[in-house]
Design a protein that fits this description.
- The protein is of the alpha/beta class and 421 residues long.
- The chain contains seven helices and 25 strands.
- The protein has three domains: 164 residues, FAD/NAD(P)-binding domain, CATH 3.50.50; 138 residues, FAD/NAD(P)-binding domain (3-Layer(bba) Sandwich); 95 residues, Enolase-like, domain 1, CATH 3.30.390.30.
- A five-stranded parallel beta sheet has the order 3-2-1-7-18, covered by helices on one side. The chain has a five-stranded parallel beta sheet with strand order 9-16-10-11-12, with helices on one face. A five-stranded antiparallel beta sheet has the order 19-20-23-22-21.
- The termini are far apart.
Length: 421
């Protein structure tokens, strides 16, 4: 059998590896607009100059040299023929196969405000080409506006701070955010404000609870406008030489129109990650299911194994986990850290750590650990599986993996999804 994979990210690469392992006689063609494989979570380190494109490549095995694997680089898929399972770029037929795996990821959202969509000095940060463009533009910039104070926005700021320090000429960076805090969907207010203070100490200005309503621009040499300031609903104007947008992403699935593959916000898949067209599967951001990196890899592997006949069901849709690290301060948040009425909230803090546990009827629903996050991975299992901890007979602060492992007769350990009585 022949298989076509659209996308060279975590899900697509995992699917390719697994197919080649499971189906020893089959071939795989991977198609991507990207010409390199890279870790998205390392893009800010590329901007800072700390990492090169080669050092953020996450393929370290023999995949690219496998004779049954072909990578078609630098091609933007524009349509799929769902009946023949053929993939096209314009009028060019790229590849066809017995199955297609759509792992096309997502793209940055650009709101239709002022000249944000058309300006040549406005950038997203989703792809390596974005990081390259930001790095090149920043060489000639001083004032930079970053719209969005989530993880991507602050990643961009962190990379620019290091770049400015390296070149000996710091940038004047202003971050604009609609929410009243930075990292509003990732951390609680206390943990988020700690990062805000660190960025402010490094010279970054924040305009929170502010909405961008327009831009001021001038004609550029290439005919496209250049944004010279970002206008806010409050009436304030933020001058800039360039702007970075970090206001969200949208699944890259526009090429599916007319393919027969059903889409809503993302591609609609069943519990085996097959689309409405038999033989066409989707995983990662394109499927809109727990698009964080490890989950995308698991989805790619599951799709490949199902093609090989495993008949697996994808059940892990839990993605409410964030690990943040700026200025060497690590934070882990899992679940819902904003309590509801009736929840029990446990807090403790010292000069190096801030910790928060939210319990609902003895069951943990959310935690925040800032500072020392070692050994805290068990909370994801407890929250995801709704495991009560109130009958353990110990302080919630001392809960660990050891409380939920049981020894089998053969000496092997297993994870117990139910708390001991």
């Amino acid at each position: 059998m022949n298989h076509v994979i659209i996308g060279a990210g975590a899900a697509g690469v995992a699917a390719a590896r697994t197919l080649l392992k499971e189906q020893q006689e089959d071939t795989v063609v991977m198609i991507s607009e990207d010409i390199e494989v890279y870790s998205r979570c390392m893009l800010h380190r590329f901007i800072s100059g700390e990492r090169s494109a080669e050092s953020i490549n996450f393929i370290n095995d023999g995949l690219l040299t496998c004779p049954r694997f072909t990578w078609i680089k630098g091609k933007s898929v524009t349509r799929i023929d769902g009946q023949t399972k053929t993939v096209y770029a314009g009028d060019e037929e790229l590849a066809g196969g017995d199955t297609i795996i759509i792992a096309s990821g997502s793209n940055s959202v650009t709101p239709p405000i002022g000249a944000l969509k058309t300006a040549s000095n406005v950038y997203g940060l989703r792809h390596l080409k974005d990081a390259r463009a930001i790095t090149a533009a920043a060489e000639g910039a001083h004032k930079i506006a970053v719209i969005g104070a989530g993880l991507v926005g602050l990643d961009a700021v962190a990379g620019l701070l290091e770049m400015g320090e390296t070149r000996g000429k710091p940038f004047d960076i202003t971050v604009i955010e609609m929410a009243p805090t930075v990292l509003a969907i990732n951390l609680d207010v206390h943990a988020a404000e700690t990062y805000q203070r660190l960025f402010e100490k490094a010279g970054v200005k924040f305009l929170l609870a502010q909405k961008v309503v327009n831009t001021t621009s001038t004609p550029g040499t290439d005919g496209a406008p250049l944004v010279t300031s970002v206008e806010l609903e409050s009436g304030e104007s933020v001058p800039c030489d360039m702007a970075i947008l970090a206001v969200g992403v949208r699944p890259a699935i526009g090429f599916l129109e007319g393919s027969g593959v059903k889409t809503e916000r993302a591609i609609v898949v069943d519990d085996k990650l097959q689309t409405s067209v038999p033989g066409i599967y989707a995983c990662g951001d394109a499927a809109g299911l727990s698009g964080i990196w490890p989950n995308a890899q698991i989805q790619g592997q599951l799709v490949a194994k199902n093609i090989a006949g495993w008949d697996l069901v994808y059940e892990d849709r839990f993605a409410v986990k964030n690990t943040v690290n700026f200025f060497n301060l690590a934070t882990l948040s899992v679940g819902r850290f904003s309590p509801q009425e009736g929840d029990e909230v446990l807090l403790r803090e010292d000069r190096r750590n801030y910790q928060k546990i939210v319990l609902r009827g003895g069951v943990p629903v959310g935690v925040v650990y800032q500072g020392d996050i070692g050994g805290k991975g068990c909370w994801q299992h407890l929250i995801k599986n709704q495991i009560p901890i109130d009958k353990l007979g110990k302080s919630p602060w001392k809960v660990s993996y050891a409380d939920f492992w049981a020894c089998e007769n053969n000496g092997e350990f297993k994870w117990e999804v139910c708390a001991p009585a």
